[in-house]
Design goal:
The protein has 261 residues and is α/β, with parallel strands linked by helices. The chain is built from 10 helices and 10 strands. An 8-stranded parallel sheet has the order 5-4-3-10-9-8-7-6. The protein has a two-stranded antiparallel ribbon with strand order 1-2. Helix 7 links the parallel strand 8 (148-151) and strand 9 (179-183). Helix 4 crosses helix 5 and helix 5 runs parallel beside helix 6 (135-143).
């Protein structure tokens, strides 16, 4: 089971709640995905003045855990203030911490991220930081008190999948006991399966489901891909080889030689 700050979940798929064509599509997609955790942008919902109420009623009906995030924050101070508001609004100490460096790439601002993570962890927050695959940043976030790390696969919404697969693999090897969740850049179920085959604990995605032609069936596809990838990892994947390896034993097999007359 997925372990996040001592709480356990059956599903290893976390789903975002933005950009769906309708509340009905969101509800059906979350149900189809079997996700038990959904992310919500405090800034987006506050801007709509909790418009809201229908959205909150929908989330309550689904019975899922809400993970607020600090999307849109560009400084540590801004992210800390947003997280504190989220704690008041949602009644949770969990926060998906985002500090953005660049509006075009939505790349995490790692210095501000580490600074905000340290402040929030000291204030009792359970921080889930959106970061890059950078090992040094991961070490600093762990030292700041983050028991969960959420590296990107590629930029948010890019649907490019695992751009730096080797670095993500290194993170998994370097942090064997830390909960690692790939957050951002997953565009296809195959990307999710590949992530899980690396030994990652979960996948967080939004755009790939919300913007699909059929969000409900796409949610189902991702749920099955995450499960398949995890099962493959736990079963033990066959490592790649440079040479062929016959699947049929050759020991004791008779060899026939054609004699030319």
């Amino acid at each position: 089971m997925l372990d996040i700050y001592g709480e356990r979940f059956k599903s290893r798929l976390l789903l975002g709640t933005a950009q769906y064509p309708s509340p009905v599509a969101l509800k059906q997609a979350v149900e189809a995905s079997s996700a038990e955790i959904v992310t919500v942008s405090l800034r987006r919902e506050s801007a709509r003045a909790r418009a809201g109420q229908g959205f909150w009623e929908l989330i309550e009906q689904l019975g899922v855990r809400v993970l607020p995030n600090t999307a849109g924050c560009h400084t540590a101070k801004e992210a800390v203030a947003t997280a504190q508001m989220a704690r008041e609004l949602f009644g949770t100490e969990w926060i998906n911490l985002e500090v953005i460096a660049n509006d075009d790439t939505l790349q995490p601002e790692l210095f501000g991220l580490v600074e905000a993570a340290a402040v929030l962890a000291a204030d009792g927050f359970k921080v889930l930081p959106y970061t890059t695959e950078d090992l040094s940043a991961a070490e600093k976030l762990a030292a700041a008190g983050c028991n969960v790390l959420m590296p990107w696969a590629s930029p948010i919404g890019s649907a490019r999948g695992l751009v730096n697969r080797d670095a993500l693999k290194t993170l998994r090897a370097y942090f064997p006991e830390t909960t690692l969740i790939v957050d951002a850049g997953i565009g296809a179920p195959s990307h999710a399966a590949e992530t899980m085959e690396l030994g990652y604990d979960a996948v967080l995605l939004n755009t790939a489901v919300a913007k699909a032609g059929d969000p409900v069936n796409m949610a189902k596809a991702f749920a099955r891909a995450v499960e398949a990838g995890r099962l493959g990892f736990e079963a033990g994947l066959t490592p790649p080889r440079d040479m062929a390896l016959p699947s049929t034993p050759v020991a004791g097999t008779p060899f026939f030689k054609k004699i030319l007359s």
